[in-house]
Here is the input.
Amino acid sequence: MTAVISKLRTGHVGLNVTDLARSLAFYRDALGFEPLGEGEEADRRFAFLGQDGELLLTLWQQADGAYAPAAAGLHHLALSAATLDEVRAYEERLRGLGVEFAYEGVVAHGEGRASGGIFFHDPDGTRLEISAPAGAEEAPAPVPGAPTCGFF
Here is the structure.
């Protein structure tokens, strides 16, 4: 009997960080992730983060330096909000924490696209996005013909 194969979805994401305490505070305070557990394994420390008890992100303190956009691996981590108002609420919270943004305010995923969001960096420079599927039609696109990822 052949097993039925369902569509895959992202489970959780693991990020290497340089300072676990700093990154844990960022993802907790800036994005509202709940600490689900912490531990140590050999020479590295880690923390599990999530929402409503579901694991979404694991932070591994094992990086020697900041995020390297030109290296193979993660391009950016995209998070989804239900509405553009929620995206703007995160933007306000992030600005209050002094977070660095890639663009000023909400940008569309492309000229005239309904989807859009904010693009910013975590303490190690990892590129992050919070977007909503609709409401950004009047927002500028980062550059004409921009891809939906928002980072180049």
